[in-house]
Specification:
Radius of gyration: 44 Å
Helix content: 40-55%
Distance between the termini: 104 Å
Strand order of the largest sheet: 2-3-4
Number of strands: 5
Largest sheet: 3 strands, antiparallel
Number of helices: 7
Shape: rod-shaped
Order of helices and strands: HHHEHHEEEHEH
Structural class: mainly alpha
Strand content: 5-15%
Length: 244
Amino acid sequence: MAGWKPKDLKTKSFANVQELFDKAMKRVNTFVDMDTKLVGDSEVRAEDSETKEESSSKRTGEELESDKSKKQKLDEKVEAEVDDAKEAEKLKQCLEIVPDDGDDVTIDATPLCLKNFDREDLEVLWRIVKAKFKKTEPVNYMDIFLHLNLKTMFKHHVEDNIWKNQQGLVKVLNWKLFYSCEVHCVTVQSIPYYLLVEKMYPLTKHTLHQMFNDVKLQVDYECEMAYELLRLVKKQLKEGYVPE
């Protein structure tokens, strides 16, 4: 009746009564019991709680995984630093500090004086010598010596005769680093080999073994170039000659 009394409805037309009826039925059909609403709200809160717990659990798992990864990286970094320190200490034992006092103490072992050259000077000298003897062969001793050593340094070939001088139980007499031009000189018996510090050359294992284990690399002071050279010799000793 929706609050209407029978006597009030008597004055209404059928259409008016029908309209009132429809409104009342609409309220009935859309009615939601309070208990049902509370249950629904409770379920929604429960679902929200479960979602939050899952999200929190996921974040905790991700944080633990992140912490584990960070710890592993830290352990690996510490281990690498320890290994580097051990390697540096071992390589340091392969060096002999010979301060430059103005006199070349190894002049007899390294007749080509390089301490006043830089790499650019050396490359310019090689271009000049190469152009000079492009069509003719050097004839005097100094020209032959200069051409041979620069060619060995910049354009070596595994079949060059100079490498054959290493055959047999030859002895490495001296090994010196020239910082400014980035060259090292290895004297085998009476033959000096002038070599660029960054390149591998066809030195025999016997020669390399003496360089790394028996004859110390003479340097004016410790520097990374010396350590890089020692690492290269160590690598070549382990892996052998790698032609370019």
